[in-house]
Write a structure and sequence with these properties.
Elements (H helix, E strand, L loop, with lengths): L1 H6 L6 H4 L4 E5 L2 E4 L4 E4 L2 H4 L8 H12 L12 H15 L7 E4 L4 H16 L4 E4 L8 H5 L4 H4 L9 E4 L11 H10 L10 E4 L2 E2 L5 E2 L2 H13 L3 E5 L23 E4 L12 E4 L19 H16 L2 H20 L7 E5 L2 E5 L8 H11 L2 E2 L1 E3 L5 E4 L7 H20 L1
Parallel strand pairs: 3-15, 5-6, 5-7, 7-10, 10-11
Antiparallel strand pairs: 1-2, 2-3, 4-12, 8-9, 11-12, 13-14, 14-17, 16-17
Helix pairs in contact: 4-11, 5-11, 12-14, 13-14
């Protein structure tokens, strides 16, 4: 669209790959102004777990707007906020025996990351934080300091400090005992590394290339944090809200982080919302010590409550298991055999096709372009954008899921011979 190319900043990115002008979306499909249909394996970078314009969520939001409900409320008492908190407690926290206070942050995930890091440093009176190689936690300065991508970090324009990166169990470090390494750093009075206030982790690194941390590794990380008086922060921005098969991604390890960060799909409908869960004893904030004008997005509260109700109504975890099994079987049976160097990783409804070892330069980007030509929207992630990330709505119909997977196979075979 000429006016966008003329006026929007060069910082725009997704429209450089997905070049059509879109004007409508429903469920697991996007439609261009010309009526072209696309299957969505992107889900708004994980912000649309329940699909586009979900009817159940949409009606709740329409009803609220029609009633002249409060739209902007800062952190004042509102019915929408109270009803969300009640539903979140009843459907998510109480059944899992989790006792968290809830902090509503600014509209994006990076603001909740900033709040978590700030609170951890305030609580422990230490400056340093440990993050992991391959991590992505956001683009504002504090969260960017905990993000490992060199290209992202180069945009900061200043030094990014007070974060030390530790090995994640991936690649060279897959058989390396990174927990033992972290422990050795902490007990070595000549390591030259300051003890951290917190360790921030994604149980599955999404932007890092869909790298699933082993369950035992997560258990040991929790134990290490307990032994050394370090707070454990779980960043569930992209892989929470049932993306990995359960509402919280850490449930498979039966651990309880000290803080949990949620954004993206927590609002259900793709509306801006982020929140920080913290153990009650960590709620040491003074009033307005971390605030923001849009920390009370009332429509997001309405959508978030509806999303929780909808997930319970359709028994989403059972539905997810069937779809997870389909994708896993398809990728291992029809994608991995194409080349012995293809690696498949994933959990729930987030999967990665790692093409980094296939001897075709830029293959992953060639593949997503082929997929786009064939009617599928999908993106890359990981080192050198070498991993194709499959991220469909959790509510995707099985026929569209199957068609999308078939497009990936067709696109890959085409990209390999070009």
């Amino acid at each position: 669209m000429n006016i966008i190319n003329e006026m929007e900043s060069n910082v725009r990115s997704y429209c450089r790959t997905f070049t059509d002008t879109f004007n409508r979306a429903k469920g697991s499909q996007l439609f261009t102004e010309k009526g072209t249909e696309f299957i969505d394996f992107f889900s708004g970078a994980g912000a649309l777990n329940y699909g586009h314009n979900n009817d159940f969520l949409k009606q709740k939001i329409i009803d609220y707007v029609s009633s002249d409900g409060i739209i902007h409320g800062l952190d004042m008492f509102t019915m929408a906020k109270g009803e969300f908190l009640q539903t979140f407690s009843e459907i998510i926290l109480t059944p899992r025996n989790l006792n968290y206070k809830v902090q509503f942050c600014g509209p994006t995930g990076t603001n909740a990351v900033e709040a978590a890091l700030k609170l951890a440093r305030k609580e422990k009176n230490r400056n340093n934080v440990f993050a992991f190689m391959g991590a992505f936690h956001g683009m504002s300065l504090g969260s960017l300091a905990a993000t490992s991508s060199i290209s992202k970090r180069n945009g900061a324009g200043q030094p990014l400090q007070n974060v030390t990166f530790m090995p994640f169990p991936y690649g060279f470090f897959e058989t390396f005992d990174s927990i033992e390494y972290i422990e050795s750093v902490l007990i070595d009075d000549h390591s030259g590394i300051d003890k951290p206030a917190a360790i921030i982790v994604e149980t599955t690194q999404a932007e890092g290339g869909v790298v699933v941390a082993p369950t035992e590794w997560l258990v040991r990380l929790r134990e290490l944090c307990d032994r050394f008086d370090i707070l454990l922060i779980c960043d569930d921005i992209q892989v929470g809200c049932y993306r990995t098969g359960t509402f919280f991604s850490f449930e498979r390890a039966a651990i309880v982080p000290d803080m949990v960060i949620l954004s993206k799909s927590i609002s259900g409908y793709g509306l801006p919302m982020s929140l920080l869960l913290m153990k009650p004893e960590l709620d040491i904030w003074k009033p307005a010590e971390h605030n923001g004008t849009f920390r009370g997005n009332q429509l997001a509260f309405v959508g978030a409550k509806a999303a929780l109700e909808f997930s319970k109504l359709i028994n989403i975890e059972v539905e997810l298991r069937n779809k997870e099994n389909y994708i896993k079987d398809f990728l291992h049976m029809h994608i991995a055999p194409i080349d012995k160097n293809i690696k498949i990783r994933g959990i729930g409804l987030i999967w990665g096709i790692d093409l980094s070892k296939v001897c075709v330069p830029g293959l992953a980007n060639k593949l997503i372009n082929k997929c786009y030509d064939l009617g599928l929207i999908i993106e890359t992630s990981g080192r050198n954008d070498s991993v194709v990330k499959i991220l469909p709505p959790l509510t995707i119909e099985m026929d569209l899921l199957a068609t999308g997977c078939s497009i990936i196979r067709k696109g890959l075979l085409s990209a390999l011979i070009d």
